[in-house]
Amino acid sequence: MSIMENTQYLTAAVTIDRAPEHVLAAVLDVRGWWTENLIGHSAAVGDEFVFTDDAAYPGETSRTKEGIRFCRFRVTEVSPTRVTWHAVDCEMTFIEDRHEWRDTDVIIDLTPVDRGTELRLTHVGLTVESECFEACSRGWSFYVRTSIPQLVTTGAGQPIPRYPDAEGAGGEAPSETRA
What is the pLDDT of residue 57? Predict the structure, then answer.
């Protein structure tokens, strides 16, 4: 498990003691490892989904805190060895270039190895010169090195939990309709 420091783009990798098909199933279950608040679908080419980290205004630009207001991805590739998402649009309030992820690609490669499967996430377009590089490195590293392996091996990752409803209890998941 490591953040790869000798690559052009932000990259995080881990080896998981499971077959590639089990790791792929977990990767495609974005709600299981990244956010339970995902809006849309994320498992097939052509699917689009929205990630948002704002509990008060899910799916729209926040007025309550800084973070990733939203990022809309289009799934452009799904194969037994690779999943690719293209960032169609985004709004990030914790950096000056609020659209830094726009037109970047998240590529997740799966490679069979003796001890299971190597999972390598590369965020093409984010380099050490990118404004969000440090924060994004910490985030992607956590999801790659901790949440996805836990989802694969135990059935439960550590995604951002479902937003609370108005009474403070866990609410329903955001719409399952296509974003």
Answer: 55
Q: How far is CA 135 from CA 47, 76, 138, 172, in A?
A: 27, 25, 5, 29
Spatial distance between the Cα atoms of 36 and 29, rounded to a whole number of angstroms:
10
Residue 158 is encoded by which pair of tokens? 């550590």
Number of other CB atoms surrounding residue 15 within 10 Å: 17
Secondary structure class of 149 (helix, strand, coil) = helix
pLDDT tens, residue by residue, 5-43 = 446 899 999 999 999 999 999 999 999 999 888 889 999
- CB neighbourhood size of 8 (10 A): 11
Q: Taking all residues of the chain, what is their mean pLDDT, rounded to a whole number?
A: 84
Single out the residue of 50, 128, 135, 44 nearest to residue 84, CA to CA: 44
Q: Find out whether 127 and 137 touch, Cβ atoms under 8 Å.
A: no
How far is CA 60 from each of CA 63, 80, 126, 167, rounded to the nearest angstrom?
9, 33, 23, 21
Place of tokens 């726009």: 102
